Amino acid sequence: MSQPELNGIVAVDGPSGTGKSTAARGLAHALGAAYLDTGAMYRAVTLAVLRAGAPLDDAAELTRVARDAHLVMRTDPDSPGVSLDGADVRGEIREQEVTKAVSAVSAVPEVRELLVRRQRALIDTATRPSGGIVVEGRDVGTVVVPEAGLKVYLTASADARAHRRTAQDAAEGRPADRDLVHADVRRRDTLDSNRSVAPLRMAEDAVSLDTTELSLEQVLRRLHELAAARGLLVTNERAGR
């Protein structure tokens, strides 16, 4: 049965809690594409920093830890994740300690330069010679792959984002305090938007999509329509689909 597949790069950016991960993974799955969560890379490096006891204000030490950390990213949308020094850390990188420190670590220019190189290598592998990948983060369309065929910037109200984050934390067995999550959402917005290197912002040629009142199915339908409109879909015979 013929099914459309992604041929190219879709960049999905936006602040925390807008549904980037769920939407990006869902689109990648539907279109037979790879999936990359760039934020998970920064979180994994932050975990390495915390394990090493490195001071968050020592850029040279943070860069050394990032350089030495052995990260392996899985780009299968049905089984994504990240390993640090041989161990799966998907759950650990979402803990509150990492969440509080990740903005400081990701603001270091040398750390970002190092991880952007790794991200581009993964994207190049996934799209060569004619594959597709959906990449999500905060600077994908502006820094990592400004040449992406489709750039989408997801937004949502602060209340909606806090509610989603709280629900996600509860579902994954983490402490879920909506007031604390709401404060953290605003804190991360401020830090990410005002950092000197690769601040959180929408690319000039990105499509803005407010997900506050949209279901996941509606978001996925819109992303599919946008990818088709940009000529990024090809039809192949996919057994069993």
Automatic annotation (TrEMBL):
Any one Gene Ontology molecular-function term assigned to this protein's record: dCMP kinase activity
Compartment(s): Cytoplasm
Comp. bias regions, Basic and acidic residues: 171-187
Region of interest (Disordered), ranges: 164-187
SUPFAM superfamilies: P-loop containing nucleoside triphosphate hydrolases
Alphabetical list of InterPro entries matching this protein: Cytidylate_kin, Cytidylate_kinase_dom, P-loop_NTPase
Gene3D superfamilies in the cross-refs: P-loop containing nucleotide triphosphate hydrolases (3.40.50.300)
Reaction(s) catalysed (UniProt annotation): dCMP + ATP = dCDP + ADP; CMP + ATP = CDP + ADP
Organism superkingdom: Bacteria
Kinase keyword on record: yes
Enzyme class: transferase
Keywords, alphabetical: ATP-binding, Cytoplasm, Kinase, Nucleotide-binding, Transferase
One BP term from GO: pyrimidine nucleotide metabolic process
Binding positions for ATP per the UniProt entry: 14-22
Documented EC number(s): 2.7.4.25
Any one GO cellular component localisation term in the record: cytoplasm
Keyword Cytoplasm tagged: yes
Residues covered by the Cytidylate kinase domain: 10-226
NCBIfam families per record: cmk (TIGR00017)
Assigned protein family: Belongs to the cytidylate kinase family. Type 1 subfamily.
Descriptive protein name: Cytidylate kinase
Natural source organism: Actinopolyspora righensis
Lineage: Bacteria, Bacillati, Actinomycetota, Actinomycetes, Actinopolysporales
